[in-house]
Amino acid sequence: MDIQAWLKAQMVAADAYDADGLVDRFLSEMTGGLNGEASSLAMIPAYVSTTGTVPADTPVAVIDAGGTNLRMGIAHFDAERQIQLSSFNKQSIPGRDAEASAAEFYAVLVDALAPVQDEFDAIGFCFSYPAAITPDFDGELLHWTKEIKIPELVGAHIGAGLLAALEERGISGKQVVVLNDTVAALLAGVAEGQTFGASSYVGLILGTGTNTAYVEQNHNIGKLEGAHDAGSQVINVESGGFADFECGPIDRELDSESENPGKHVFEKTISGVYMGPLALRLMQALVFEGAFSKSGGDTLAEMTELSTIEIDNLCADNGRDVGILGTERFTEGDRAIMKEVFGAVVDRAALLTAVNITAAVVKGGAGQEADQPVCINIDGSTYYKTFQMPEKVQAHLPRLLGTRGLHIRCIQVDDAPVVGAAIAGLTTFS
Fold first, then answer.
1. How many domains does the chain have?
2. Sign of the C-alpha dihedral, residues 5, 9, 10, 16?
3. Is the pLDDT of residue 50 over 90?
4. Which residues constitute the domain of residue 204?
5. CB atoms closer than 10 angstroms to residue 252
6. Contact criterion met (CB below 8 Å) for 202 and 416
7. 175-179, 191-195, 200-204, 360-364: which has the minimum mean pLDDT?
8. What pLDDT, on a 0 to 100 scale, did the predictor assign at position 335?
9. What is the pLDDT of residues 295-316, one digit of tens each?
10. How far apart are alpha carbons 313 and 178 in whole angstroms?
11. Helical H runs in 328-428?
12. Does residue 271 sit in the same domain as residue 401?
């Protein structure tokens, strides 16, 4: 059978989509979200700016709360705009194994900051849990994820709580800015972007989930309460929620069985946690089309899970663990079909990622000059570790951007949450 034609009919192929039409719909949803209209994109103001110069040799305290760990310490940028870290420590976040109190959470932070209290005035706090960012640079925790159990903090302002805990220890005069990991990714590009004359910035995360942040320059900023200045505002798009596009029947089937059906539809087509399960469901559908050997088809029909890592390793032929896919239950012909299926899943994810980037660049209104490109900092293991993902994304971008006369430069900043939090702390209060 023609596997490619079948995949296209399932809407799991890049050429099943009108990329330019997708960009237009993405832009329409972005505008609607900014205007407070019904939209699948939340378009949340982050209340930080990219216009300040990142100072050299000025220390700032950094906290990175993401996943189940906390990292805390002092950072500064050297004359070459490279981040330097000191007094850094990493430990488990309270509430991971057993319920914890707010006091226990803040005690861990203060214990780390107290010994270096004389080295900083500002704190950049990358808080990678659902929070409503407020105009005073704080974040109100909406709910915990990653099974963290600190119920006292739900609904609390995380930054204000930290400052109060510092005051209780006799540490006063500090300021804190709270931001999420996608905004941190955007800000992490600022130090490097300033070296090549970047006209604006975009942060993209493509990992277990996906999201984008960009600098809004064209919208009526006055409608965004608490905008950092009169001309720009960093916007957290929450792009994983984009829903104005057509998925295939197997996409819809998986979505209906997920923990949050109908939500984060875009994320479910491109992020790492979903690509393996999607590939398995597609291959199981192909069993009924007679595409696989008897042994291979029987094995696929019995499988209940497939990790993205295993099938990606099979496609990359990198010698790493492929699990059951490498056993004699499958023929080489079976494995060739598996590679074709997962290749299509990645192709589509790459196209949709390029659409996401393009929409952010267009909406930001910068990048018209080749010597003043938009700096795109891309973070996330799915982007960098999925076989051929970077190459495929970069292959789509020139056409999508070129027809619009726009220029970008993609970069990768190591440890983006820490770098972005440091830049936020250094530039927000200056």
1. 2
2. positive
3. no
4. 3-44+196-411
5. 16
6. no
7. 191-195
8. 97
9. 999 999 999 999 999 999 999 9
10. 37
11. 332-364, 381-385, 389-402, 416-427
12. yes
